[in-house]
């Protein structure tokens, strides 16, 4: 099978994500890592994509990393230039309709929550920590799963849900590319900061190749010729890290 590279988590604008894939592809090739020649959109089953033995680089969520991906290696994390981000950390924004912007989370007891998925740190696990020790489906009258942060916001706008937790990078990218999606919505609270989305590689990736991947990503964020590529997807830095950085998510 071909070595795999994909950036599935913040692919709000396909052209910008493809430009990022092409840039990283070139930087890896310069370090002897040859990849598939097609645009790196992953398979529909992200968990299967992340577990591929030939995976060179992908981006996952911190919660599945610590609960469902014991065999992958962590490369590090990007730093994002979005409100709510600091270094490799990020926050979730609790979002409601603009008419509810004066409310607190406590005021949404007995109302409807929508989450992107049950294995999401930013859209689900963060709320379990915020609402604890109460169970979400007892705190809210209805908890539904939309499949994406974008879809969760649409359901709030359409009146099918009242509250959602949206990661701050997705919020910033939607403000840039699809402002109609966030129009009429308001951030009523921010979560505490947690480690951002981990960049991962196969557990079979050798130490030398892991180091080459980290060098390629460091070059991506530092070389002037890739500044426009990074700016388009709000990337402004990279930190190498190991999975221990995400262990607090199990709290």
Provide structural commentary.
The protein has 251 residues and is of the alpha+beta class. It is 35% helix and 21% strand. The chain is built from ten helices and twelve strands. It has a five-stranded mixed sheet with strand order 1-2-11-3-12. Strands 8-5-9 form a three-stranded antiparallel sheet. Helix 1 crosses helix 9. The radius of gyration is 18 Å and the shape is globular.
Could you name the key traits of this structure?
globular; alpha+beta; 12 strands; three-stranded antiparallel sheet; 251 residues
From the N-terminal CA to the C-terminal CA, the straight-line distance is 37 Å
Fraction in helix: 25-40%
Taking Cα atoms only, what radius of gyration do you get, to the nearest Å? 18 Å
Largest sheet: 5 strands, mixed
Kindly state the number of beta strands: 12
Shape: globular
The spatial strand order of the largest sheet comes to: 1-2-11-3-12
């Amino acid at each position: 099978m071909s070595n795999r590279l994909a950036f599935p988590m913040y692919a709000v604008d396909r052209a910008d994500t493809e430009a990022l894939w092409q840039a990283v592809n070139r930087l890896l090739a310069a370090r002897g890592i040859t990849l598939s020649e097609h645009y790196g959109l992953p398979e529909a089953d992200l968990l299967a994509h992340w577990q591929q033995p030939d995976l060179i680089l992908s981006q996952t969520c911190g919660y599945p990393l610590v609960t469902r991906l014991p065999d992958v290696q962590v490369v590090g994390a990007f730093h994002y230039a979005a409100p709510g981000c600091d270094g490799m950390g990020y926050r979730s924004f609790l979002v409601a309709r603009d008419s509810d912007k004066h409310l607190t989370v406590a005021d949404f007891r007995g109302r409807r929550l929508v989450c992107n998925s049950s294995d999401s740190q930013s859209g689900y696990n963060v709320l379990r920590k915020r609402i604890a020790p109460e169970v979400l489906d007892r705190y809210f009258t209805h908890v539904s799963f939309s499949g994406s942060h974008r879809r969760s916001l649409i359901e709030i706008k359409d009146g099918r849900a009242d509250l959602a937790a949206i990661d701050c990078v997705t919020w910033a990218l939607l403000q840039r590319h699809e402002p109609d999606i966030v129009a009429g919505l308001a951030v009523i609270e921010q979560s505490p900061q947690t480690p951002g989305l981990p960049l991962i590689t196969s557990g079979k990736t050798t130490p030398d190749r892991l180091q080459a991947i980290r060098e390629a990503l460091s070059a991506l964020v530092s070389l002037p010729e890739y500044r426009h590529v990074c700016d388009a997807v709000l990337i402004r830095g990279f930190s190498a890290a190991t999975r221990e950085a995400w262990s607090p998510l199990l709290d």
